[in-house]
Amino acid sequence: MLDNRPFLYWFFTVCCIGFLAAIAQHYHFWAIMDAKDHTKISWVICAISAAASLLIGFYAYKGHASTDAMNRLWFISDAMVTLGMIGTVAGFLVMMGDGFTSMDPKDAAAMQNTIKTVGSGMGTILVTTLMGLIASVLLKLQLVIIDHEE
Fold it and tell me: Distance between CA atoms of 37 and 143, rounded to whole angstroms?
């Protein structure tokens, strides 16, 4: 008889993640993320994470995964942090663009534009870093669950 405990644990975990995503939707997190992340790297992180999660579920259902497949999935979970850091660097580039070089402290409109640019860059920095870390932790949680049960 096929032991389906790893799949059931994975399914429960994904249901919990879905519940948390619904709570995030209730508090308009997805709209805020879309508005703040000008690079849209956060959406790439979400898409890759969802695809990897489905692949983990497939291996959990199948009952086993090759060492190569598991190593690739662990790499993907680490890559989520890297993508978040790429978004962080992109946000710093937006924030530190030419806003400061052409800034005239006596011109109020120029100062407001500089503050908008800095705020926009900070939004990208924070959102992409947060999404990269969350995606990595959630994928690693799923991987640990199926690794432990195999």
Answer: 28
pLDDT in tens, 94-138: 777 765 666 667 777 777 777 777 777 888 899 999 999 999 999
Residue 71, Cα to own-chain centre: how many angstroms?
A: 20
**Longest CA–CA separation in the chain, Å:** 77
The three-state secondary structure class of 105 is: coil
Q: CB of 134 within 8 A of CB of 82?
A: no
Whole-number Å distance between alpha carbons of 125 and 84: 8
Name the amino acid, one letter, at 97.
G
Q: How many residues does the structure list for the chain?
A: 150
**Considering the entire predicted model, what is its pTM?**
0.85
